[in-house]
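Record type: monomer structure entry
Structure origin: computed from sequence
Chain ID: A
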Amino acid sequence: MEKKKPTYIFLMVLLILFLDLSLEHVINYKKHLFQIKSQFSSLLYNYNDFNEELPIIHNDDYDLKVDFIEKRKAIADIEYLLSILKYGYAGYEFFGGDNVFNTAKENMIWSIREVLGDNISRQNLLDIIISELNFIQDSHFAVDDYTLCTYTKYFSTDKIIFLRDNRGLYTSIGNRKYYLNKINGEMP
């Protein structure tokens, strides 16, 4: 038993160290998880009540082939659209909330009123909506058949590594820095 005593002591010390490190890891993980959750919750829309929520409207006279819309109906459609976005679009707060969307709404209504006559063409209305909501960069969001997201392509390689310093992006070849000036004629 005396010969095994140092082994037991050694194993107990290892176990205590492991548990201590493991406990520290768990505490750090929980702290990090709490920070992520609190940052995420700051992006959620705060609902006080559902008084402004829109009722379901059934319109059997709706015609998908409308070429022109009365301006007053187009303005009502804009107000309805923005209400749907406010209460039904998950990206509402992420893309700016009331400040950004209300500005877009005011611009759309102003643009509709500036059109000559009592009617606005369907295509003109779509163009107004798309131009004012183009800040929404969400590939799942579309108006009519128009996706507002500007797509980009990501390319990478692990053969050439670029770093950044005060002069720009560079790669090192043979202890010498080579700076990246342009990609396809544009700034990187």
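Annotation 1: The two ends are 70 Å apart (CA to CA).
Annotation 2: The mean pLDDT is 81.
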